[in-house]
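If your schedule permits, I should be very grateful for your opinion on a structural question. What I wish to show you is a protein chain and, alongside it, a tokenised description of its three-dimensional fold. Would you kindly read the sequence against the tokens and tell me how you understand this chain to fold? Here, with my thanks, is the record as I have it:

===
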Amino acid sequence: MEFEGKSRRARERLKLALPVRVLCKESADFEWVELSRLIDVTPFGARFTLVHLTEPGRLLHLTLPMPRQLRCFDHIEQQYRVYALVRNISPYKEESGRGVPTQPARPQHDTPRFEVGVAFIGSRAPAAYEKDPSTRFEIANLVEGNCLWEVRERPNPEHNQQAARSTETRLQMPIDVMVEIFDETGSIVASEQTVTENISRRGAAVWTTLEVERGRFVRMTSLQNQMSVTAAVRARRPGPDGIMRLHLEFIDRSWPLEGFE
């Protein structure tokens, strides 16, 4: 679609509570689907709510009855199927007229909803995503003469973590925690009581026997004060002693070290 010479309305957010099917592949072997409604939309992206957690940089596949005048492709198809890059995610605050999800998740817990903002990148996913769905991306630039965004891979997360460790407090101490894994509906399918090998405000390494892939999201709860954080699994590998560790990065909040030092 060409927007040159058109009014600014092409970029303005339209409050359309359209139904949207959201598919997320957390890893090569795990995915979930959630039904929601848009909060607003432009030809370049959209906002909607989710009860499943995701993170900036992940790709989602959306299916929705997008107005044809807002589409960049598939103008004759009934449904608009587009890959979208998660740009931001924040706690959702209910407001009159906003979209709400129609499929609950994690029903046994009072799980909050999240407001997710995405940028449309096209009908096909990058090759890196096809190889590893947990790959994270960032905006490169807007495709000239189009309304789609080009993306590139984010720098290696292992390098980011190593750099972060040099500037943050990492406590080498065991903290009793519970690690929980969810299925595609949000129900707990596996859990383990374990201890941390080390922990910082941004992440932790925990001993584990759980079989969980890189890219999955888990919940870690302190057994001392019942504080919970959601974390992305960045790696699962053995330490020098041969025992497996989960290397976690906290997504929804920081860990308060004051109470554990």
In short: The radius of gyration is 20 Å.
